[in-house]
Amino acid sequence: MSSQRKSKDKLLWSSDPGDLAIAPFLVVDGSKRIDHRLIGTDLDSDLYRSQLPSRIVLIDNDTSQQASNAPFPPVLRTRLQADSRDQERFILEVYDRWIESLIKRRCNRSQVSVSIYFEDQAKAEAWEAAFKDNKPLWVSDIDFPPCPPQPPYENVRDVNVWRHIHLESLLMASRDNNRVLHLLFYEMTSYHNAFFSFLYAVDPKADRNGGLTAPPSEGSSPSFHAQYLLRQLVESALLRVLVIDDRVAGTIWGRQDSGQKLEELKYMGIFIARKITVNAGTDGQKIEVLAGGEQDPAPGWVNLHLQENGSITKIEIDKGKDLEPTSTEFDVLFIHQTIFENKIAPSRKERWQKNEWVLNCKRKIPYVIFHSGRGKQPELLPENAAFLEYSALQEHLLQEPSKFLLTQIALSAKG
Amino acid sequence: MSALIKMLHQAACGNLTADEKVLTGLIEEIIKELLGDEHLVTYVSLFDADRHDWIGEDGVIFYSGQYKKEEIKDDFRKFKDTLSTHKAEGVRTWVFERGNRRYPIILIKKPSLEAGECISYKSFNEILLEIEACDAGAQKLSNALELCPKAIQDFQLIFNYLKEKHFLSDKWQFIYYFVSPVKRHRAVSGASIFVHKAIAEEKLVQLVAYFDVLFAHLDLLLIEAPLRRHALRSAVAAIMARNMSHLLGSHIEPGIQNDLISLVKTVSRSELLRSTKGWPPNGDVAEQIKKVARYGWPQAFEEACRDKDKYNLLELLYRIQQKALDRYALYRQRRMDFIARVATDWPAWGVGFDFYINFVRPFLANSILLHFVGYSDGVHLDWLDFDVYIGGSKVTEQYTPQQGQPIVLSPLDMAVSWGAVESEGRPKYRSWPDGYTPLTVWSRGGDMAVQAFHVILENIIRNSIKHRLKSIKDKGKLRIGIRLFQTYQELSDAVECPEGLRLKASDDLVYVVISSDADCPNKAEELDQKICEPVIKETGEREPGNWGMKEIKIAAAFLGNRELEEVNDPKPDFVQICRVQMPKENGQVVEQLGYCLTLPRFYYVGILKQGAGDVVSAKE
């Protein structure tokens, strides 16, 4: 650790950015001279940033613009009147700027609405009371239904975490009423889900111990943990995740309720790649199908087109027979190391070639995570992608789906 | 010179306790002493196998008494840019990584030198390859090293650079490329010495002798750390894999295969089920379970399908069993991932996880593991209980019936509350942690640190059952304490260590003590000595014995965000066994044997310090 390192409660300072890699956010004074690698778009910058927190916030009150070439995410240049004496407020404000930009990136708006159904009236009322007059600026409306939402589910919002109400009920109600279900995120949760368990256990009103040494919050403002959790939840909801994994694809394809599972994942903002076309339209064209053989169409699955160097040319969601696929964008890519090595980029044996592939890929999908069950083998992995164990996907995607945990881990993981 | 020769002699005898700086310093001394004014510049390539990179700025170490460091560095960067522009490889890549043959000395001469300027080295007939820095020389070098045709082009490019663009192109006449005797692709590769006059034969003999010794010693120094690390990694993998086989493979898996129904039988004794309205008399439940044991679930279901109550009872028990199996399957999968992780590369990243929700609770709900961990010794799920304290607050899992007082759930009850569901997946018995305050800690590698924590718990429970069975049987219970302290001071106040608290005192850490009420507190010192044992010997061999303790040590190092090498520390400051004061229900305290661990604190935002007037100052 650098001798310049200093910590206080929830914040950590250092003159060496590497020391700060353990935190989810890196805050830099953007009005000062900064290392060009923090904002560069070249490989050297990408490699440098890969060892830093995955959310980099440059505070620059002289500008209202994103640095001309800095890619968001992971780099956000923003105005912020910072005062670290109130650490919790500072943390939440940094997060707010980040979420505002994510909302803009995702749906070109400035606000989203949120609904959390606890299936517990007392809990709902406590959250309602805490957030009624204290909602973040990026929230247009926040709702904690005290009673079970009923068809036609008019209280559905942009971001919804509802306990024990199946997506299928909402879809059925929308079909019955000839309404299209317009929402950004829906996740049915239950208490056994570690995320919901945490959400449920957090007291929104009083911070008995807001941090390790923070004094209790005053008045009726929500507790720090509740506010932080709300931001994490919305961030997770907004991120669009693409998974390239033969095992995940095969498991879902083979399920009796395959279509329903895909639909649930879709409303969580998670999509599974089935068909990958490398070097489309050239002599070297290669098509890899990860599940279901040559069967076409496969509604709900993603068809990915990319070049051998990692540049993504097209990402489409198959809409079914006689329907045009829709183009879409993603923020997070999980890719099975074996698929990368053996199917997508078999000729890229050297590390620099893999780095180059990842950099090109990141121009479309900013967060790239390699995953495998064989442990991390640095010599076989690119240096600018994160690495994760397969069991994390197995748990948070298939066994106990939780977009929250999946994305929080994804954005923390490093190579 | 005599002092130098003395040192070299010591080096040759293997008695030199020198680091690489001393040895590289010697290279400089030797060049100065032997070549004097003839010397222009020397480039030395040393490969650090530990970091997988070449040592020195730009991957080369420079020596020159006459020219400025910046001048040499700028020129070297230009040279690298030239190679990069032409997608060419450097000489060291061709010689060390691609060449099928090696010559100890390659002498590159400027073309068209007068005969009088050159020396014919009689002593080096077989080991010195002499070429001219021209196209023919490039061909000759490529052929001699048995390289592919691309090498010729690259050598031509390099020779042209040396003749025309090198900052000493008008001064150098000879380049002596000394190749290290170490036969690895990447190792101490050698030195290229630029001189304006041929080196005399006797000086060349001396240079070769000195360099051979120095290069061999440098190589030993540079290779030792990675070799030790590989030995340690291999030992760690062996210990973890063997312990998984010993614990999961010998206790849990056979239990699942041979007597899974014993879990159901035990669970049916849960107070949570027995207090449920409409729960059938014990005899009826036992009869149904007996049928399952004798005929299997399908036939038991078939028989019960005419009686709704019996069918519902079976369905409930079956769900509890299956949910428990699901949780255990994930645990087993994570364990395998964890072993793969500790056997390869330890992550430097982490995520903020809640201590109780993410670390403690899943273990309490791992009914299969807890049921079979002591099954062969007669200690079942209903024997185990946990006392969890975060700060001074006791956290209990509770269920409140629609009518009546909250019930504190044991791990046995949690098998029910985590398994029994109603329609739409709603839990039949909703439980929540009482007395709980969120406390986010830094979890290394996401779920991997959670697994490390569970490995430690698993070992402590198994050790208690193995060594203190009588004590457990006398009490009819095994109580495991998990206590989190938010500061070092709080920890110090609660523990007693014969030789003082060894754990690192830091504001960056929180501390966890795991205790067992069956263990004897007086054994603390003896057990601590065992946990201090290194994992491997000086020779790289595994230390035999106490592998359970070693596994705790490895998992504790992982959990505390330490380096792999630290698991070999004979005085680890990330794990210590001592006596701990555990609170009792009646407000008194009881002394127990405790395993003290460290967990990194979670920081929400990292702020780069850039000097005075930072937008967010650390001083505020």
Account of the 3D structure:
- The complex is a heterodimer of chains A (415) and B (620).
- By secondary structure, chain A is of the alpha/beta class.
- Chain A has twelve helices and 18 strands.
- Chain A has helices spanning 43-49, 87-107, 121-131, 167-176, 194-201, 224-238, 246-254, 258-267, 337-344, 351-362, 390-399, 403-412; strands spanning 6-8, 11-14, 25-29, 55-59, 75-78, 112-117, 139-143, 159-163, 185-189, 241-244, 270-278, 286-289, 302-306, 312-317, 326-327, 332-336, 367-372, 386-389.
- In chain A, strands 10, 11, 12, 13, 14, 15, 16, 17 and 18 form a nine-stranded mixed beta sheet that branches.
- The radius of gyration of chain A is 22 Å and the shape is globular.
- Chain A starts with 5 loop residues before the first strand and ends with a helix.
- Chain B contains 20 helices and 19 strands.
- Residues 12-17 of chain B have low confidence and may be disordered.
- The chains are: A alpha/beta (415), B alpha+beta (620).
- Chains A and B meet through strand 1, strand 2, strand 3, helix 2 and helix 5 of A and helix 12, strand 8, helix 13, strand 12 and strand 19 of B.
